[in-house]
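User: I'm putting together a small comparison set for a docking exercise, and I want a reference complex before I start. The sequence is below, and the ligand is flavin-adenine dinucleotide. Could you produce the 3D structure with the ligand included, as structure tokens?
Assistant: Of course. I'll restate your input first, then give the structure tokens for the complex.
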Amino acid sequence: MVKDGTKHIASLRDGRRIFIDGMCVDDHTHHPAFRNAVASAASLYDYQAQPQNLEKMTFTSPTTGNRVSRMWQLPTSLAELVERRQALEAWAELTCGMLGRSPDHVASCISGMYMGLDLFERHSGARASAVREYYEYARDNDLYLTYVIISPQADRSKSAGEQSDEFLVAGVCDEDTQGITIRGAKMLGTGCPLANEVFVGAIQPLKPGEEKHSVTAMVPLNAKGLKILSRKSFEAHAPSTFDSPLSSSFDENDAVLFFDDVKVPWERVFVHNDVQLAQAQWHAIPTHVYQNYQCQIRLMVKLRFLLGLARKIAETNGIVNFPQVRETLGQLAAETAMVEGMVLGMEAGGWHYGKYFVPNKKLLYSAMVLTQQLYPKFVTTLRELSGGGMIMLPSSVDDFANPEIAAHIEQTQRSPVTDSVGRVKLFKLAWDAVGSEFGSRHLQYEMFYAGANMVTRGHAFRTYDWERAVGMVDGLMSRYALPHAETQKVT
Ligand SMILES: Cc1cc2nc3c(=O)[nH]c(=O)nc-3n(C[C@H](O)[C@H](O)[C@H](O)COP(=O)(O)OP(=O)(O)OC[C@H]3O[C@@H](n4cnc5c(N)ncnc54)[C@H](O)[C@@H]3O)c2cc1C
């Protein structure tokens, strides 16, 4: 009964409209721009469906009695939070953390919203029912969801309602007894070719008067009028796994979504005409914390992978025993372990929101700020350790098929620890991780997926325990004064 990869791929053949290279794609699960990433997404479901992984990866749905992914689990204790994290971590390991919007990301968002049903109830019983029923529907069908919650870049000095076109930023253009109609654009739908449905919402603050943009709704990716405007595919330009092991398999895609008057029934509308709820849905309840905790689990795995790459590069180039190189690797190891420690800290320092046990906010937002800075440092260090090795490479796997070139590869690609094929294989992987167009997009992703650094620093500022820090300063200062004043001295 557990969802597997075959079932997931079948669910993606739904007539959605993905536009790429001037064309609307017919069946994207077979298209050279998307098919391998689709297969990678399917492999996550195959993994959970393997009998030996069922317990680790799934739990029993309280409504159907069927086993579904633990990404939908709503922990009520530290032990359950850890159990769920172990499932998410196992999934991230399958892609070395390269699928930013793997199914567990938006599942975490929706689960956090469900934990905060009390907030929706206070605003509208109907909207609360929509959240409740959708969470159960998505969980029981083990759906892969993605989201678009950012206004397209245009004039960032103006808010959504002040742009030159009333519906540049997606908003509600009509409503009737059946539901609402959404018109306009949102960025950036990562993983749209891999997912079943998209969450459309607004995380950037809105002002009174911008009610039409304060919409949160769930839309199937094959909804009439929904256009998925894909960026360039890296997968399409990576025909060989040996040459581009990551681009060829994990190009999850990013797209501008254009809602060309898309009708959404009321049962799928979580927020409507309510600028206050549009903000509160993220920060007044566990939503934002829970979804970004998933990101830190994934990123922890990805940093471990990059650390492993760094060490192998050092061994392959015979530099691993130089003291400076060991220091460099020690620094990366310490930073990776710090992120691991922060994930454990978020769990150990978790707290109850109602009956649910959720990760510690202060540590989560600190980790978000720090990992946003760490990732570019990791990329630079990997480049530094590699030197020209990531460039001194055969043009493609076809070079190995030409005996004359193959002989020169054998002569020139040398290493103290591996043969010429092993060396080329490693450095091609390293380049794909940090230098290729795919690697470069990953750098941009890790720098921006949760907002520019001013945004993440703002969250850290908002959630730090200032009373304790400032209280200590005040406490000390209260123990002394000007020498002539009649106060106690510092003891
Ligand atoms: C690869 C990738 C995948 C993504 N996937 C998704 C997704 O799946 N779903 C989704 O909803 N979003 C996604 N995003 C969008 C992401 O959430 C945004 O990029 C992020 O929130 C930052 O917004 P922005 O890109 O509009 O940058 P901006 O907010 O425009 O910021 C860009 C820069 O402009 C400057 N700036 C802007 N405003 C100010 C200000 N007020 N004060 C001072 N400086 C300012 C800063 O230098 C800032 O770094 C993705 C982004 C990337 C790069």
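Residues 101, 146-150, 153, 156, 187-190, 254, 441, 444-445, 448-449, 451-452, 454 surround flavin-adenine dinucleotide (CB under 6 Å). The mean pLDDT is 97.
User: Thanks, that's exactly what I needed.
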